[in-house]
């Protein structure tokens, strides 16, 4: 991992700063491969919640190439998604579709290990409840993912936890559906408790457009209604903010 610096963020975990976007994808691939190996050795399987967006897509495309693809036991890897848009699974805006095209169609993952959010039928609330049931079925009564990948929106959102939305206050559900007026779309998302319980939470941050919001989230006043990413704190594991130098340019 080509580190520029490591920053201790206290309760907010640690920040690993790498030189540029290619170094970010390489570092993220290292984290993914290591997390998979450790989980499989300890639990005989690896459970990961994927994120949408251009930065994760580049990571997934890298993982599908050698030597990375040969370092993961895909037969013991279970894929979930931290959030999803309420669009058909074949839609270009589907996080599942993006992951399928970038990674899952290129590595030998058993079909039964791919746990996508159902968006092709039914209604969002029923789909969210069914996904929560699926998570509990696979991971147990108190689910703890081995790895959850997250992004950070320029408005401070992560997963589909958007500013001033009701989902920010949910503590008795693992997965919820909500219409997000800001993007004029219904989203299904992990709730804060499910994310925070993971063994490892990793934010992937690339580009100067993330610099100011990253500074606000980490160094600004506590205002999670406006900056939902401030709600993310590892309660039973590690929280890592993996950023390239451009994204971290406003962090001391």
The CATH class name reads Alpha Beta
Question: In percent, how helical is the residue content?
Answer: 25-40%
User: If you compute it from the alpha carbons, what radius of gyration comes out, rounded to the nearest whole angstrom?
Assistant: 17 Å
SSE order, one letter for each helix or strand: EEHEHEEHHEEEHEHE
How is the CATH topology named? Rossmann fold
C-alpha end-to-end distance: 21 Å
- Structural class given helices, strands, pairing? alpha/beta
Number of domains: 1
Question: How are the strands ordered across the major sheet?
Answer: 1-2-10-9-6-3-4
Percent in strands: 15-25%
Which spans have pLDDT < 50 for at least 5 consecutive residues? none
Rough outline: globular
Number of helices: 6
Task: List strands and helices in order, with pairings.
Blueprint: E1 5-8, E2 14-18, H1 21-43, E3 46-50, H2 54-63, E4 77-81, E5 83-85, H3 95-102, H4 124-139, E6 147-150, E7 175-180, E8 185-190, H5 192-196, E9 200-205, H6 211-219, E10 238-244
What does it look like?
This protein has 252 residues and is an alpha/beta fold. The protein has a single domain (5-222, 238-244), classed as Rossmann fold (3-Layer(aba) Sandwich), CATH 3.40.50.1360. 28% of the residues lie in helices and 20% in strands. The protein contains six helices and ten strands. It has helices at 21-43, 54-63, 95-102, 124-139, 192-196, 211-219, and strands at residues 5-8, 14-18, 46-50, 77-81, 83-85, 147-150, 175-180, 185-190, 200-205, 238-244. The strands form two sheets. It has a seven-stranded mixed beta sheet with strand order 1-2-10-9-6-3-4, with helices on one face. The protein has a three-stranded antiparallel beta sheet with strand order 5-8-7. β3, α2 and β4 form a beta-alpha-beta unit. α1 crosses α2. The radius of gyration is 17 Å and the shape is globular. It starts with a strand and ends in an 8-residue tail after the last strand.
């Amino acid at each position: 991992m080509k580190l520029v610096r490591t920053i201790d963020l206290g309760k907010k975990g640690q920040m690993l700063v790498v030189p540029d976007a290619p170094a970010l994808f390489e570092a993220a691939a290292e984290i993914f491969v290591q997390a998979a190996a450790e989980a499989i050795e300890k639990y005989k399987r690896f459970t990961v919640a994927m994120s949408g967006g251009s930065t994760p897509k580049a990571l997934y495309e890298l993982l599908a190439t050698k030597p990375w693809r040969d370092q993961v036991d895909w037969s013991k890897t279970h894929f979930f998604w931290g959030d999803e848009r309420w669009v058909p699974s074949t839609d270009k805006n589907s996080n599942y579709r993006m992951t399928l095209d970038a990674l899952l169609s290129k590595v030998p993952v058993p079909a039964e290990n791919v746990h996508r959010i159902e968006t092709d039928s039914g209604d969002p609330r029923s789909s969210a409840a069914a996904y929560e049931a699926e998570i509990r079925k696979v991971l147990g009564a108190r689910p703890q993912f081995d790895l959850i990948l997250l992004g950070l929106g320029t408005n401070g959102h992560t997963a589909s936890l958007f500013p001033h939305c009701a989902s920010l206050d949910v503590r008795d559900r693992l997965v919820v559906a909500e219409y997000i007026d800001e993007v004029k779309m219904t989203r299904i998302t992990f709730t804060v408790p499910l994310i925070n319980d993971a063994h490892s939470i990793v934010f992937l941050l690339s580009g100067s457009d993330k610099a100011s919001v990253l500074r606000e989230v980490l160094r600004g006043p506590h205002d999670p209604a406006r900056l939902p990413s401030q709600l993310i704190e590892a309660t039973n594991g590690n929280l890592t903010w993996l950023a390239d130098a451009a994204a971290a340019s406003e962090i001391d």
